[in-house]
Structure formats: structure tokens, C-alpha cells
Amino acid sequence: MKPEIKNYDCTDYDPIDTYQFNVPCDVDFWMNFTIGPVGFDGGDNFQVRVATYGTIGLKESIQYCILLDEYSFSQVLSKVSEFLAKSEGQNWDEVATKLAEYMLWEFQDYKPYNG
Questions:
Q1: Taking the domains of the chain in order of start, what are their residue ranges?
Q2: Measuring CA to CA, which residue among 112, 114, 103, 113 is closest to residue 48?
Q3: Residue 62: partners with Cβ closer than 8 Å, 6 or more residues away
Q4: Which label site among 21, 56, 63, 98 has the fewest CB atoms less than 10 Å from its CB?
Q5: Taking the model in full, what pTM does it have?
């Protein structure tokens, strides 16, 4: 099963795909990608932090972070496409679990209620 981007958004900078930062080497924000299986409608939400090296502190976690020298939306899409290529699997749970290594999955650590 192959994953694909169904949609993306960023509440801080909308529309993110055309937003122009005043200082492209000083960027730090989170954005959301809806990702689902190729050929199916809909998907799950995965968040990723997009930041430039100058904005990350020495002791900050870079988990779920795309680090760039200078911001460009095409680089963000390219990096997410790399994540997708590394995350193919036999079923959606396997795919989403692999994606969760790179991006924060909306169902991360979810445990069903057992009454």
C-alpha cells in the first residue's frame, strides 16, 4: 500500500504553498498533512515542524522536524515525499506506523477503550 498527500494546511501561514517569509532562513512553524492510501478518499492527519537551522536551540528536540538551511515549500514537499516513499506497507496501519517515525500522527499512542 502506497501513501499519498491528500491535503495540507498551516493555520499560522495560509496559504502555506505561496506564503513568502521576510527572512527565509528564520522560519519555525508546524503544519498538517492529510495522508492516505493511493486510490482512496481521505486519510489521517500528520503534523510536522518546519524549521531552519538558525531557529533550533541546541537542547531542542528535532523529532518530527524538517530542518532546512532556507525555507522553500518545494523542499518541504520533497522531504515529505521521501517520508512517503519510506513508508509503504501491507496495510494502512503499517504505513501509518512507519510515517509516525517522521511525523506526528493523530493516532500516535492511541489505545482502544477496554471498558
A1: 3-105
A2: 103
A3: 49, 51, 56
A4: 63
A5: 0.92
